Request: fold
Amino acid sequence: MVSRLRAREDERIDRGRPVTFTFDGTAVRGFEGDTFGSAMYAEGRRVFSRSFKYHRPRGLVCCAGQCANCMATVDGRPNVRLCVEPIREGADVNGQNVLGSVDRDFLSAVDRFAGPFTPPGFYYKTFIRPRRLWPLYEKLLRNAAGLGKLNPEATREGRFEKEHRSVDVLVVGGGSEGLQAAIEAAQAGSSVALVDDGPEPGGALLLTESGDEPARALANKAREVGVELLCPARAVGVYEGNLVPIEYDNVLIRMRATEIVVAAGVVEQPLVFPGNDLVGVMLPGAASRLVRFWSIKPGERAVVITADDSGARAVETLKAAGVRVAATVDLRATMPETIVASGKKGRVTGVSIDGDSVRCDLVVASGSPQPAHALLSHAGARVDYDAGRGVFVPVEVPDGIRAVGGAAGDVGQPGLPRPSFGGSGSKAKEFVCICEDQTTKDLRYAHAEGYDSIELSKRYTTVTMGPCQGRLCHLNSVRLYAETSGTDESLIGTTTARPPWSPVSLEVLAGRPHEPARRTSMHDRHKKLGATMMWTGEWRRPYAYGDPAAEVRGVHEAVGIIDVSTLGKILVSGRDAATFLERIYPNRFGDMASGRIRYGVLTSDAGRITDDGTIARLADDTFYVTTTSTGAGAVVEWFEWWNAIWGYELDVVNVTGSLAAINVAGPDARALMERLVDIPVDADSFRYLDARQGHVAGVPSLLLRIGFVGELGYEIHFPSVQGEFLLDALVTEGADFGAVPFGLESQRVLRLEKAHILVGQDTDSESNLLEASMPWILKLDKGDFVGRWSAEQVKARGLETRLVGFRLKTDDLPVEGGQIVGDGQPVGRITSVRRSEAADAIIGLAWVPADKAVEGASFEARVDGELIPAEVTLEPFYDPDGERLRS
Amino acid sequence: MTFQVPCPNCGPRPVEEFTTTGEVRERPVESPSRRDLSHYIYFRRNARGVQTEWWYHRFGCELWFLADRDTHDNRVLETRLPTSSRGEW
Reply:
């Protein structure tokens, strides 16, 4: 049964383009330009959903995407407002929160039987005993009340983007006031964007019989003068710095505006009377939209009760659509004592006004139009209750934001409806909040229980907390509370308005998945060499090229090659560079000769270890500092911060990306280097901890003789662009020696054999130098440095815990982070553990009580629930005297 | 937090581009008592109102600067370069 009115020029539907979808499995036919809701209404559907708690049948109320009454699941997406969602061919629309269908919902028994017994707080008070059954009750109750169900298996569909933009003036709302404000601003030379939630701007103009033409003229004028029209789009809220997120299709525009003009108009308010939620009771705007947008006759016999001109406009529109208006009440002229709607099977069949019954199938009712002030409130505006007109009006609007039209409080002089029209005798439910199924009785009950503040009442009854976010219930709940407590609305005040003002989907907020990765310049070579890649911070690094144990053997017995480009690399240069480093590191650099290298650990003023690396003095006033792989940015920031305080003459340059680095280590490293380097590398010319500049295979390089992995080694730092070339040269030339590329896993074994710590792995935000067993780093005989005073305090109080090496007397590899147990209590933890062939044991590092930090002390570690004995080792597990390192 | 911070180099930019280490603190110049040290490291005034803070334009020009920010409404009243004091040590 399709019933459309005679075609009109300004209707939104294109009757030549039919669109078909299904609702609960039954085909619905509409036209291009319809919403799901309008197409369903045109086919005669009146019941669109079941209410949140009582499962009462509900129909269209606002037709503007504000309330919960038409929410359904569309193609698996829950809580879609059918009244504004454009129709799509083949869509699968289903009712939600029902047992059965929206027409026959078995859960509606709640309304018939349990209704009188379910005041606010009922569930919590009743089902709390016995307490252990609450989880079961909760599951049942949650199933019986609620909205649509999220599909936990759902995945992202489509592409979502974020746009960062700015304009001089952003206008929210495309009614006549908004369009005019936009036009004026654009004519004054400002860049202007206008957001409107309809498919075309026009706002309330489009709801009047003579409004289409002026609306179109204004929109055209706006386009002409360069206003950017964003519609349909929704402003989500107003945030600090005049930032307005706008949902525009699949894009979230983060719009920054010098001035925001809120022209959001008014929100029509329902009247509170028994039966006011019956299907067929709707707001004037809803009736007008059905007729004017989609050429649908909303009903046959209407009763119109309004507090302002919206009634007259609705009557005009309804009559033009052939609806018989059986009765009209203008609340400005007459104020009935009681209004009671009666219905059959949830649908309205008549209204009784002060006892005079009128038969009807449509009730168009509204109270004073409430200025849509939410966006202004987000920005910090206050609202005052206007007792004469019965609405909240924005005041004290902050700079940079302006309200015009209805949103500013320009709502004429409406009649002041009663907070409720139920009178004293009525037993039928009169709803204050249709989203959350809260009646006048519930609110009065909450008040009687002592919830005398509107904020408390909101939390107790959940009034205003439903999908409409208070649009249709905030004003009425405040007015009812004022009446109940015999006080003034201005004393009741308002609840806090928070974003989002419009519903916004999480996928739009999330935007495009964005997981940036950093690759070294040798990345592709690693893959060709068969590396398994892994994440270390934001870097991608080779975990291993094959068997990590074989790689470890290769380093110990021949020579290994590892890409260490991820090391942070910082040039510190300038007259005060040495002084600066002495003051920011706990150890000395002033006495270091050019061409020498020292290990350095950075600590905070709290004495905590934050990073480590090597510092090479390249010249009197130039130092080359390396940091941990993920630490470069933080160290540069740290250096720059302290120097902002100290003001030394120096430059800090982060060269992490521009330089690559390769570590060549193993007993054959020198022989390999001799083939490729143009400087002497014999043990006397190029000593351990020397820094030299030269060319490796012709590539200008800085060579650092350091030994993180415990063998004779050269760290080559060179321009990133030469990464693949130099790696190839080393692998090719090293072939005779049995050179192996090695990955992160073997490097971790090798460094553990030397008991070299990894900052962040073996240390945490509590670790200090003394307890991390690095007392030699601390030079308390020099002047002030960052972390000095805390180090002094630790020294004075004595050590409580120590980081030590250990061997496990078992063959089971415990997990890193595993517990160390003493007297049945956890007293420490394992930070690193690996099987070492060279040490022929399972070795590791662990934090143990300070009294255990003696060679050979034993402790127990918990491995898979069993206690395993371990023995403390204070020396490195491999080459304890460093002979191989220095060779 | 969506306010804008006027970087002395770059002008007003969104706060996400910056990082802050919070209010400026007085670092003890002499070896402090345990109590004074704890106070310096762990305690903040956390003023409600205008306080001077260190800000860093991390995703921008990488400049550290001082900002007078009203913690109540996140208005940044002024930003400036620090006047450094090298101190004696």
In short: The two ends of chain B are 39 Å apart (CA to CA). Chain B touches chain A through 33 residues (CB under 8 Å). Strands of chain B lie at 4-7, 11-14, 19-23, 50-56, 64-70, 75-80.
